[in-house]
Design a protein that fits this description.
Number of helices: 37
Oligomer: single chain
Strand content: 5-15%
CATH topology of one domain: Rossmann fold
Keywords: Membrane, Transmembrane, Transmembrane helix
CATH architecture of one domain: 3-Layer(aba) Sandwich
Protein name: CHAT domain-containing protein
Pfam family, one: CHAT
CATH class of one domain: Alpha Beta
Length: about 850
């Protein structure tokens, strides 16, 4: 009875005397005192209630304290995505309510530092960079040297994880110079320094640095020695040092994740030593650490897996030691599954693109396994299965935005979808501002503010995602082979689809009724043939100075890429990949010739119509055409400057004569005008300069007053039927495995353009003007851009007023058309008029015959 009275008294006291702020702290401290699954569930339930109740800043701060402790425990349990979501909410709450003005609560140590680490672990490099740089800025402002150096250590880990070891080494060396770094920090920095030196193959220096007095841990010293031996391909020596490190494993404090990774490294080493059974045992140990409740010999079901990239390492290695194709594919599919779990938590393009490399290599392994299975059985199902792996690993980020925009087109009034697209556009806009600030000499405060803004947008997108997924569960991007072949039948076309791997090029050929799969070995010789052919177009003189080299290489590459297998097909859809994105297929030669007369050479363009595409899904995609097909054109000209485009005005006059258009010339061709008008026109023409960018500066296209950068283009919303980029290098950009070139063409596709005419190299101004004149003449007549593109090139070759030198393929084959064969915008109406006309004729004939029929009766 007394106990019941005490409980009742406590309940009453807490219910009536405690404020909401105090209740939140009490609940949190109760959880801290007794952390387990039950208390975590209780805390989560209370958190949901508190979120609805908090109003004052002090209550918000108390909730941040709760969430930081919850996030810490979720991290300990290995629930990384849940921990991230909790920390993100706490960080967003802290910054939105400006809680830094209330107390000296250490948001860096409690939230931002672990959040940055979690982003690194889950491969979210964009959010990791933004978060770490933001809290380094905060620490610098407050002169918190400990947090500054801690941030530097985490930045080093981030750059090492993406292979940027030179940057990591520079940060490490700068941080080691600080006299205020703690002993533990100096050891972490020194170990990181050795790791980067090993990765850069500076082995002698790495050995010297490994003997530094800063490194006390024998486990770390032996691990470093193991890594050096491994990089030198001294596998027995590596095993010796690894076993030395293993002896100190029990006395070394490692998380479950770190322990699992240790055994994955052991498995990898045993595979190199050709000891698959030993490797299998190590992988099982690693798996048992991550999934302690699963003790069976078989691979675990998907339901037990979670977003942890160590699983991917385990399943990839397990597949590599299997002799059974089905078992290997099953293991690799589990890797893809975990990769997708990780991907679901990324919101930025950059994180998704950087993480595609591993998926890409895995796809090649799967395709190779299925190619061998196909060769042994000749069953077409293996081709279709291999094709799906290829398609899933090609331009998946671009495909994602296409699917999102199509979903909004189908449900234009859905507030969730409207909000999602708005946030994605805002994300790209802020990213473009951040890139500009980082390229310039901006203040750290501006960069930090933009980084924080991106983190906030990312959090909002993640909050939306489960709601959208619940409402629209079927957002798969898998395609139907039947649909594909039906589309080919409609277009009377054949699809030639390439997958450019590390060791081979795979070529899928789909006709209207059958499919084929070829494997092209990638040797040093074949790579050289491809790169030599591409470099023929670096400048105008290379081909003309040695026509024989061109004719020889153009035919060799034609055969190398197996294009002769479709030589009888009139319409061909080419989906290039890797280096093949920069190959002008229309300039390949179907025969070996000795002539030096360019107009007489047997180019592919003379025999076939080539349409390019990004992937099969883009080819299949049928979007609503823009109602206004009027042309919007920009011609900066850049008169009286070293950028002057002398013949650009001729282009403008040609377009004006052939098409209903609104043109902006010279000073009127501004960037702001383009952004304001672009979404209202069905056809866009840009006659200007462009850059493919590099690993530092993004691709861009020039207007009279300013450049439009790639991320700015991503934030636009276009529905153009056709975009013509009459500018240099619009089809060239930094090449990322799986996603393709980061060029302006991709930017326009992302923004919503359906068909593109782009250039693969720096083009001659006069020849461009001549080709454009012919292009628009034919485009005006038939409204079919792919057909106008081909005819304009043939017209150019057959023009007797153009000299042989100017008929080099350098001058006419730069422009490639990305899109579909399609129908002219007014084809349906023309067809209607045709049928009406036929009906009238039939009726008239019937009327005229009526008297004769009666007479015969």
């Amino acid at each position: 009875m007394n106990k019941l009275y005490v409980l009742l008294f406590l309940h009453t006291a807490f219910g009536f005397s405690q404020t909401l702020e105090e209740r939140i702290y009490t609940v949190t401290e109760t959880f801290i005192a007794n952390k387990n699954e039950t208390s975590l569930n209780t805390l989560s339930s209370q958190e949901i209630l508190f979120k609805k109740q908090v109003e004052t800043k002090y209550e918000q701060l108390a909730l941040v304290f709760l969430q930081c402790n919850k996030g810490h425990y979720l991290h300990e349990l290995g629930f990384l995505n849940k921990a991230i979501t909790t920390y993100e909410d706490a960080s967003n709450r802290f910054s939105t309510n400006k809680l830094n003005t209330l107390s000296d609560f250490d948001i860096i140590e409690s939230c931002l530092k672990p959040l940055g680490n979690l982003y690194i672990k889950t491969g979210d490099f964009t959010n990791a960079t933004n978060t770490i740089k933001h809290y380094i800025f905060l620490a610098t402002e407050k002169r918190q040297t400990n947090h500054q150096i801690g941030g530097s250590i985490n930045l080093v880990k981030l750059y090492q994880s993406i292979g940027e070891h030179q940057i990591a080494l520079k940060i490490t060396e700068d941080a080691l110079k600080s006299s205020k770094a703690s002993r533990a920090q100096k050891e972490n920095l020194q170990i990181a320094k050795v790791n980067s030196l090993i990765a850069l193959k500076a082995f002698d220096q790495a050995l010297i640095e490994n003997n530094s007095p800063f490194i006390n841990s024998k486990f770390s010293k032996y691990k470093n020695s193991y890594n050096i031996a491994l990089q030198k391909e001294n596998y027995p020596g590596a095993l010796h040092h690894f076993n030395k490190a293993k002896a100190f494993l029990k006395t070394t404090i490692l998380t479950s994740r770190e322990s699992a990774k240790f055994y994955v490294e052991e498995a990898q080493l045993y595979i190199l030593l050709n000891k698959p059974n030993k490797a299998s045992e190590s992988l099982k140990t690693a798996l048992n650490i991550l999934v302690p409740d699963y003790k069976k010999e078989a691979l675990p079901p998907k339901e037990l897996l979670y977003a942890e990239n160590t699983f991917i390492d385990i399943f990839d290695l397990y597949a590599s030691i299997q002799t059974n194709t089905a078992t290997a594919l099953n293991s690799l599919d589990l890797s893809f599954f975990v990769s997708k779990l990780l991907r679901n938590n990324w919101t930025s393009q950059e994180s998704k693109i950087k993480n595609q490399v591993a998926d890409r290599h895995r796809s090649e392994t799967c395709i190779d396994l299925l190619f061998n299975a196909y060769n042994n059985s000749k069953e077409n199902t293996f081709i279709l299965q291999a094709f799906q792996y290829a398609e899933n690993s090609k331009a998946s980020v671009l495909t994602d935005i296409l699917i999102k925009k199509q979903r909004l087109q189908h449900y234009p009034k859905d507030s969730l979808l409207i909000r999602e697209i708005a946030l994605l556009k805002e994300q790209e806009h802020v990213t473009s501002l951040l890139i500009k600030e980082q390229l310039g000499t901006s203040q750290a405060s501006k960069i930090s503010a933009l980084s924080q803004k991106l983190s906030s947008i990312s959090f909002q997108l993640k909050t939306l995602k489960p709601k959208i997924s619940k409402k629209y569960p079927d957002n798969s991007n898998s395609l139907s082979i039947n649909d594909l072949q039906q589309k080919l039948k409609t277009d009377k076309a054949t699809l030639v689809y390439y997958f450019f791997g590390k060791n081979s090029i795979y070529q899928f050929i789909f006709s209207q009724t059958n499919s084929r799969l070829h494997k092209i070995a990638l040797s040093d010789t074949t790579r050289k043939e491809l790169t030599d052919f591409i470099h023929l177009f670096d400048n105008a003189s290379i081909i003309n100075n040695n026509i024989k080299d061109y004719t020889q290489l153009a035919h060799q590459v034609y055969n190398l890429l197996n294009f002769n297998t479709v030589k009888t097909e009139k319409n061909v859809v080419v989906i290039p990949d890797g280096l093949l994105n920069f190959v002008p297929f229309e300039a390949l030669l179907t025969k070996h010739v000795n002539t030096t007369a360019f107009s007489k050479m047997p180019y592919v363009v003379k025999q076939q119509t080539i349409v390019y595409n990004t992937n099969a899904l883009f080819y299949l995609n049928e979007r609503v055409k823009a109602k206004n097909n009027k042309l919007l054109g920009y011609f900066p000209v850049f008169e009286n400057s070293n950028k002057q485009l002398s013949y650009s005005i001729d282009e403008a006059k040609t377009i004006q004569n052939e098409m209903p258009s609104k043109l902006f010339l010279r000073k009127a061709a501004t960037k702001s005008s383009f952004i304001e008008n672009a979404q209202n026109y069905g056809t866009i023409h840009l006659s200007t300069h462009a850059s493919g960018g590099d690993f530092v500066s993004p691709a861009s296209i020039d207007f009279y007053d300013d450049s439009l950068y790639l991320h700015e283009l991503y934030s636009l919303d276009l529905n153009s039927n056709l975009v013509v980029l009459s500018a240099c290098e619009t089809g060239i950009g930094t090449l990322y495995k799986g996603e393709g070139p980061m060029n302006m063409a991709r930017g326009f596709q992302y923004a919503g353009a359906q068909n593109l005419l782009i250039s693969l190299w720096q083009i001659n101004d006069l020849s461009t003007s001549q080709i454009m004149r012919s292009f628009y003449k034919h485009y005006h007549n038939n409204k079919l851009a792919y057909r106008a593109n081909r005819i304009s090139k043939i017209d150019y070759l057959e023009d007797k007023s153009i000299s042989n030198v100017k008929k080099s393929p350098y001058y006419w084959s730069a422009f490639v058309f990305y899109g579909s064969f399609g129908k002219p915008a007014d084809s349906d109406l023309s067809l209607l008029f045709f049928y009406i006309g036929i009906s009238i004729v039939i009726i008239l004939i019937a009327v005229l015959l009526m008297p004769k029929l009666k007479t015969n009766d």
